[in-house]
Amino acid sequence: MAFVMTALPLCAVMALLQANPPAGPRPQPVPLPATVKRGGSPNVHRLAQLRLPGERFQTAGVELEQELTRPFAYVARVRLKSGFDVVSVKNPARPAVIYSWRIENADQHPLSTGETGKYFKLGGRYYYARGFNFSRGPVQPDLSAVVFDVTGLPDSAAVREVGRIRTPYAPGGFISVFAYKHSTGRVLLFGTNARFPSGTPSYASVYDMERFVNGGDAAAALIAKVPVPETPLKEPGGYHDIYVSYDPASGQDRLYGAGANGFYVFDVTRPEEPRLLTSITGISGVTSGHTIIPSPDHRYAVTQMEYQFSPMMIFDLQPGLEGKVSTINQPIGAWIADWQDLSHNHEVRWPYVFAAAYEDGLQILDLRNPAKPRRVGWYHTCECEHQTGSGGRSVFSGAFELDVRNADGLIVVSDNGTGFWTFRMDGFKEWNGRDWNVPNSSSAQDWERGPTSGVR
Questions:
Q1: Nearest to 406 by CA among 429, 434, 387, 379
Q2: Collapsing DSSP states into helix, strand and coil, what is residue 14?
Q3: pLDDT number for residue 248
Q4: Which of 1, 176, 211, 277 has its CA at 20 to 30 Å from residue 52's CA atom?
C-alpha cells in the first residue's frame, strides 16, 4: 500500500497539537527571584500569555486588527528571527500562532532592528507592511519594508508577498512604519529611515499604497518626504516613531514625528507639500524623541524619550499652534512607573494612555487632568530582574509594544522576553471618542470611510 504525505497548513498543525498534546511531563515554570516585579492591579485581568519561539530580545512590536471578524495580531520578530508571527486571538484566553514568516538567509541579518509592522485595507483586501532595518548587516541594507497580502487568514497558505520597498537613498531601512487613511481617501504608508548619508537631509518617506500594491514599484509609489527640521541644537538622525491623524477643527491631516532634538507637528493635508505647524524642542536633557501621540482633539501630545530615567511627558500644543511661541519646551505633566526605568511605546484611547513600559510591563494612565497623570491599572509582564536587558546591563527588557482593539477593549502586549499577552481592564469594554466628547480618533483607522467620517 502506498502512502502519500501532504503538507498541512500551520494552523492545522497547531489545531492537531492542541487536540493531541505530546505525551510526557509538562515543563514546570522556573520560580522567579523575589526581586522580580509580578502581578498587577485588581482591575487588570490577564487572559493569557503565549510564549513565542526563540531567544530573549527577538520579539518587537505588535499590531492588532480592529475588526472582530478578523481576530489577528501581528508580532514583529527581530535579530536572528527577523520576520513576523500572526497570532489568532479568536479566543483571547487561548491565543495561538497560525502563521510565521522569516526573512531569507536569516543568519545574515543578525542585527535587524526594524521594530514595527502595520496592517491596512485597500480595495477590499487586507495587507501587512513589515518594516525592516538591516543597517549593520552584510546584505540588504536598503530593504525597508516587505508588504504581504493577508486577506486569506486564517488560511496560512493564502498569505503571499506583494512586494518590497527599498530605499537606496537612505541605507538602513525603516525603524518604524505607520499606515494611514488620508482625508483624500488615499491609503498612505509612512516610514522612518534609521540613518542618512552624512550631510544629507533626513526625513520620513510617504508611499501611496494603491500604486504600490498594483504595481509593486516603490519608487513610483513614493509621493512625499517629510523633513526633520533644522534646530539650533541639531543632532544627526531622522525620525523614530511617527503618528498621523485627522484634526476636524482645522480640517488638516497632521503628522507627529519624534526624532532628532524632540518632536514636530506637520500639516500633511497635501503630503507633497508638508508644512511645519509647531515643534517641541529644547527640552532640558532631551536630545532625541522616541514616541509622540496627540489627544483626539490635537490639543495635547503624549511623548516618550528612550533613555533610562526618562518619564512620559505631556505637552500643551496650543501655544505653538497659535504662534504664541516659536517652540514648546516645557511639559505640563509627567509620569513614570519607576524612576529607575522608562516606557517604550504607548497608545492613546482618551482619557486613557496604555503604555508598554519595559520592566514595568503594561501601565495604564488616566489623563483627564493632563497636568496630573494618574495610574489606574498595571500588570508586570517582564518576569525579569532589574537591568538585565538587551545590550548588557540595561533596562531595555520587558513590555515592548501594545495595541488596543476599540470594538471590545482587548489589550495585547508584546514582551521582548516573555512573548505575547492578552488583557482586559474592568470598565473598558470598548472605545469610541464620542463617549468622551472628543473626536473618534485613535491609531485605529476607518479603512472604509476615512478619517473625516464619524469623528464627532
A1: 429
A2: helix
A3: 95
A4: 176
Taken in order of first residue, the domains within the chain and their CATH numbers are: 45-436 (2.130.10.10)
Q: Are 107 and 80 in contact (CB under 8 A)?
A: yes
Going by the DSSP 8-state scheme, the letter that residue 249 receives in this structure is T
* Size of the chain, expressed as the number of residues it contains: 456
Helix (H) or strand (E) holding 244: strand 239-247
Enter the pTM of the model. 0.90
Quick: pLDDT tens for 347-399: 999 999 999 999 999 999 999 999 999 999 999 999 888 988 877 788 899 99
Q: Which three cell numbers stand for residue 50?
A: 503565549
Beta bridge partners of 293: 302
Cβ–Cβ < 8 Å for 364, 409: no
The CB density around residue 157, as the number of other CB atoms within 10 Å, is 13
List the grid coordinates of 312: 512620559
> What are the CA-CA distances from residue 232 to residues 235, 262, 263, 285, 329 (Å)?
9, 12, 14, 15, 13
Q: Is the CB of residue 87 less than 8 Å from the CB of residue 96?
A: yes
Q: Are residues 88 and 69 in contact, defined by beta-carbon separation less than 8 angstroms?
A: no
Q: Helix or strand or coil: residue 80?
A: helix
Q: Indicate the residue type of 410.
A: L
- What span, in angstroms and rounded, lies between the C-alpha atoms of 239 and 267? 16
Q: How far apart are CA 46 and CA 96, in angstroms?
A: 16
The three three-digit cell numbers of residue 453, written as one number: 467620517
Longest dimension (CA), the chain: 85
Residue with cell 516659536: 326
- Under 8 Å between Cβ of 455 and 248: yes
